[in-house]
Design goal:
Elements (H helix, E strand, L loop, with lengths): L9 E3 L2 E3 L3 E3 L13 E8 L2 E7 L4 E4 L4 E3 L2 E3 L2 E3 L4
Length: 82
């Protein structure tokens, strides 16, 4: 197959395609009990998210704010508490 694939809606397996995002069939709601993963544009409250995984476990806003529960950099855990 060659060429471009374009779509404003639909699905590829469990992945949902909307005009502003693609995600794994679980809508992003920033609730840690939901295991959503996706990329695109989701506005919740005053935040606009561009990437998310594990709803609340990891996300990046379109302003560049990274949220995560645990970070390991070059094999070392980064502890931001306190």
């Amino acid at each position: 197959m060659t060429g471009a694939i374009t779509s404003a809606s639909g699905s590829i397996g469990p992945w949902q395609i909307l005009s502003d995002r693609i995600y794994n069939s679980l809508e992003f709601d920033n609730d840690e009990s939901n295991e959503s993963t996706g990329i695109g544009t989701v506005k919740i409250g005053t935040e606009t998210y561009g990437f998310w995984a594990g709803d609340g476990a990891f996300s990046v806003t379109q302003d560049g704010v990274v949220r995560c529960k645990k970070m390991i950099v070059d094999g070392q855990e980064v502890n931001m508490a306190g």
